[in-house]
Write a structure and sequence with these properties.
Elements: E1 2-6, H1 10-21, E2 25-29, H2 33-40, H3 51-60, E3 64-67, H4 70-76, E4 79-82, H5 97-109, E5 116-120, H6 128-140, E6 147-151, H7 161-166, E7 171-175, H8 178-188, E8 195-198, H9 200-231, H10 235-243, H11 264-277, H12 283-307, E9 315-319, H13 334-344, E10 348-352, H14 357-364, E11 369-371, E12 384-387, H15 392-395, H16 399-403, E13 410-413, H17 420-425, E14 429-431
Parallel strand pairs: 1-2, 1-4, 2-3, 4-5, 5-6, 7-8, 9-10, 9-12, 10-11, 12-13, 13-14
Antiparallel strand pairs: 6-7
Helix pairs in contact: 1-3, 4-5, 5-6, 9-11, 9-12
């Protein structure tokens, strides 16, 4: 099939490369010339394991092109995927300007007389596709165009997105057109996964519902961690006992400093906004959002209780600034939020992250912050070390060795990556989340 991808972010670039690897003829479009130039040179604008090698492979094989030429890209595709950002606006609703601008441009350059399916992979609220259709027609003007709209929400996880695309546990496609649904089914039929063919509204709601449920699971175990701290229980043991129940499962039961990233916060907020706009108060989601915000404050209270709220003479080492391991993404990162709070209290900070240092520096600058590519750099002469991202590299550090170069042997483990008993035996004062020390 001839496929066009609009947007070269985490969803668009990965999807385009994977589709090309499946044997399809793919054109990836972005309005950012710098990003397109990087891709053409084999340099990825995002960090994703295996992506650089995959893009180089499909470019060399002649199945993948990157361009800023809207006309060429739209005329190429029989399937056109919209993969642009849908960030939250100030009211908490999804900002759909990028989606609608892309829709108008598709209509403007769509060929007359050739059938096209316009598919939204971007996460959008219920009812968006009717507006997408309207914008395509507006862009087309008096030109007669033959198209259908469809929804194909993505379920890729940053850090493992190429694997996820090839090993998905389900494919969701929604449209009011059987022809569009059949074309999308043909695209994915080789995967060993069920294909859910449904209406547009249901497909749009599935992605929000899935992310909101996972966020709820995270907030639930974080609330349990607070009970553990007040009763002497250990949240890791509690989560293990819960997760062995097949109805619950162990995933997303790791207590910590809260969920973040480019999806969960905005999707939970947008779903709550949708419920409000439809005259329903989704109180459970309101509680999920409140619990997530409180979890950061509970963690910071451990710091205030030990050092007070004036940290002007304190130096901290920070392990991790990405919102999760396996990515360079710092959008809505809880780690960055905590770093800002520590700096705001006057602390001097040394930060390392295996992938996100550049994005972190762009977001935070260098006021009271130094950045280190080496892990050892954040231990030297610091009063405490914070683990804020669950990179496996931080689990395998020789803490006995690096503890000797710290001013004080104190660990604030915001991801429960370490064993409290082991750290205590090594002479560390250990602060976890819901852990029994």
């Amino acid at each position: 099939m001839k496929i066009t991808i609009i947007g070269t972010g985490y969803v668009g670039l990965v999807s385009g490369a994977v589709f090309a690897d499946w044997g399809h003829d793919v054109v990836c479009l972005d309005v950012d010339q710098e990003k397109i130039d990087m891709i053409k040179k084999g340099v990825m604008p995002i960090y994703e394991e295996g992506l650089e090698e995959l893009v180089k492979k499909v470019i060399d094989e002649g199945r993948f092109k990157a361009t800023t030429d809207y006309k060429m890209a739209v005329e190429h595709g029989e399937l056109i995927f919209i993969c642009v950002g849908t960030p939250s606006n100030q009211a908490g609703a999804a900002n759909l300007n990028y989606v609608f601008n892309a829709s108008k441009s598709i209509g403007k350059f769509m060929k007359s007389g050739e059938y096209t399916v316009v598919i939204t992979k971007s996460t959008v609220p219920v009812g968006t596709h009717q507006k997408v259709k309207k914008n395509i027609l507006e862009g087309a003007g008096k030109k007669k165009v033959d198209f259908d709209v469809a929804s194909n929400p993505e379920f890729l996880r940053e850090g493992t997105s190429i694997y996820d695309a090839n090993n998905t546990d389900r494919v969701v496609v929604g449209s009011d057109s059987d022809k569009a649904l059949n074309m999308l089914e043909s695209l994915y039929k080789h995967l060993n996964a069920p294909i859910v063919k449904t209406d547009l509204a249901s497909a749009e709601l599935i992605k929000y519902s899935a992310n909101a449920f996972l966020a709820t699971k995270i907030s639930f175990i974080n609330e349990i961690s607070q009970i553990c701290e007040r009763t002497g229980a250990d949240v890791v043991n509690v989560a293990k006992g819960m997760g062995l129940d097949s109805r619950i499962g162990p995933k997303f039961l790791n207590a910590g400093i809260g969920y973040g990233g480019s999806c969960f916060p905005k999707d939970v907020e947008a779903l709550y906004r949708t419920s409000s706009e439809n005259f329903y108060d989704f109180r459970l989601l309101r509680g999920v959002m409140d619990a997530n915000e409180r979890q950061k404050e509970y963690f910071l209270e451990k710091v205030w209780n030990k050092y007070g709220k004036n940290l002007s003479n304190i130096k901290f080492g920070i392990l991790g600034s990405a919102f999760k391991n396996g990515t360079d993404d710092t959008r809505k990162s809880v780690a960055v939020s905590i770093i800002k709070s520590l700096r705001g209290a006057g602390a001097n900070l040394l930060i390392t992250d295996p992938a996100a240092l550049s994005n972190t520096k762009n977001e935070l600058g260098d006021k009271h912050i130094n950045y280190s590519k080496k892990i050892e750099g954040v231990f030297k002469d610091v009063d405490a070390v914070f683990i804020l991202t669950e990179w496996p590299e931080f689990d395998s550090i020789d803490y006995e060795k690096f503890g000797k170069i710290m001013k004080k042997k104190v660990i604030f483990d915001g991801r429960n990556l370490l064993d409290p008993e082991t750290m205590t035996k090594l002479g560390f004062e250990y602060f976890g989340v819901g852990r029994k020390v």
